[in-house]
Amino acid sequence: MTEPAPTATILCVEDERDLLEELVEELAGAGHRVLSAVNADEAEALLSRERPDIVLCDVMMPGRNGFDLLQDLRRAGVLAPGTAFIFLTALSDRAPRLTGLKTGADDYLAKPVDLDLLHLTIRNRLLFLRRVQTVAMPGRGRVDVHLSRREREVLAAVGRGQRTAVIAHELGISENTVSQYLKEVYRKLGINNRADAARAAVAMGLSR
Prior knowledge:
Layout: E1 9-13, H1 17-29, E2 33-37, H2 40-47, E3 54-57, H3 66-76, E4 84-89, H4 94-103, E5 107-110, H5 115-136, H6 149-159, H7 164-171, H8 175-189, H9 194-203
Parallel strand pairs: 1-2, 1-3, 3-4, 4-5
């Protein structure tokens, strides 16, 4: 049975005002609370007082571009750990896509905007956050995921930003064994990358 689509607070950062209005109208029509900014400075000011679930951000903007904005937000600790950051840009070549993901984005969608793909991306991201929150709050509803002690140790280390070799050394196991534990964590949480694993660790209080 398909889970109902959750709603969220979404910040749209886009300098093309017509597209920004279209995004705001489309997302608000889907039940989301939508914030908007036309450049990096406006977005950073909003994020200093708001905690959106998702940021949809253009790359090429006057002043700081989207890559610089995300780096500055990460460096300053302004972006909440549970906030997903998704680039939405006309730069669809492989090089800028890799740059965006290396900067720490959770996803990278190309313009022109495919609204169906955008809604599905948002829906899947929010469902992932809901699963993590369910694991993080035992006793407040049905908990569908059980992590072993060792899986939690590996996940906690990922949440602290440690690489596989360091985790293996600290836990006294091989790098291959760490990878196998991490693969199982991914399967149980329904994720497929370290960024999501780190976010899960933070939500579950494991990365302190």
